[in-house]
């Protein structure tokens, strides 16, 4: 029978049942007394049942009205919960968030940011995936994540199913703390000629750019160790076995690591070597308020972190 009733009628009925008088019910609802009386009369007509005996100005509920009150309480309580949930969704205080980040940021910086943003809110559940940059792009193309953080994609033709925002910033040189170059204020690529280096894998855009820059200056880039990310390479730098030209977020990680900085020095480079990151979002997956809020906050967080280390971050197209 509930499909015959509207919320206004149910609210009026509940107010009359839980108030001392019709006028008290009207005040509780912020409505006029005739409007409440009309709502009750219409409800009775639709139900085909008299809910109250009229005794002068008093409305005395019949036994069936007490049953209806139990149902009305349940309906209005559920409606209140729905309203609260929707308000939380609008405010980005509840919901599900599915995100991905490349190795490196996903180890400390990215989850630390997410944890700070949700502030232990029990209304938010988070899924954080650690994936390579190519895998993050694939997840975005499949519309399977809310957003991801990765190296800037090299294949621009594949970006028809996702949108990407690009952030570029200056790279730095990491040297062992006792290395002669650690005493320099600024290091040039010529200082790294034939120096043992830790680097990303040969097919990575950053490594290809470095190789091109060394060749253009007739310098030798001598690979001592290569890895998918810079974090393992830092162990070799810390052990005094090589230097490495790091992306700036790895520099943030080094400075955050504390104990490792006792064995590693970070120096600016004379040549401007830009590293490009991307915040990737599926184009055809509707973004929740929570996802938009987190993505915007992460963009600002990245810009702040990069600015703090003096890497001159800029948004690019």
List the topology elements.
Layout: H1 7-17, H2 22-29, H3 33-47, E1 52-55, E2 58-61, H4 63-90, E3 95-101, H5 109-118, E4 124-130, H6 133-141, E5 147-151, E6 162-170, E7 172-176, E8 196-200, H7 205-216, E9 222-227, H8 230-238, E10 243-246, H9 248-257, E11 264-268, E12 274-282, H10 289-308, E13 314-316
Parallel strand pairs: 3-4, 3-5, 8-9, 8-10
Antiparallel strand pairs: 1-2, 5-12, 6-12, 6-13, 7-10, 7-11
Helix pairs in contact: 1-2, 1-3, 1-4, 2-3, 5-10
How would you sum up this structure in a few lines?
The protein is of the alpha/beta class. It has helices at residues 7-17, 22-29, 33-47, 63-90, 109-118, 133-141, 205-216, 230-238, 248-257, 289-308; strands spanning 52-55, 58-61, 95-101, 124-130, 147-151, 162-170, 172-176, 196-200, 222-227, 243-246, 264-268, 274-282, 314-316.
How many helical stretches? Answer: 10
Biggest sheet, spatial arrangement of strands: 4-3-5-12-6-13
**End-to-end span in angstroms?**
58 Å
Order of helices and strands: HHHEEHEHEHEEEEHEHEHEEHE
CATH topological fold name of the largest domain: D-Maltodextrin-Binding Protein, domain 2
Provide an overview of this structure.
This protein has 317 residues and is of the alpha/beta class. The protein folds into three domains: 2-90, Orthogonal Bundle (Arc Repressor Mutant, subunit A); 95-166 and 276-316, D-Maltodextrin-Binding Protein, domain 2; 172-272, D-Maltodextrin-Binding Protein, domain 2 (3-Layer(aba) Sandwich), CATH 3.40.190.290. Helix content is 42%, strand content 23%. It contains ten helices and 13 strands. The strands form three sheets. Strands 4-3-5-12-6-13 form a six-stranded mixed β-sheet, sandwiched between helices. A five-stranded mixed β-sheet has the order 9-8-10-7-11. Helix 2 (22-29) packs across helix 3. The model has no long low-confidence stretch (mean pLDDT 89).
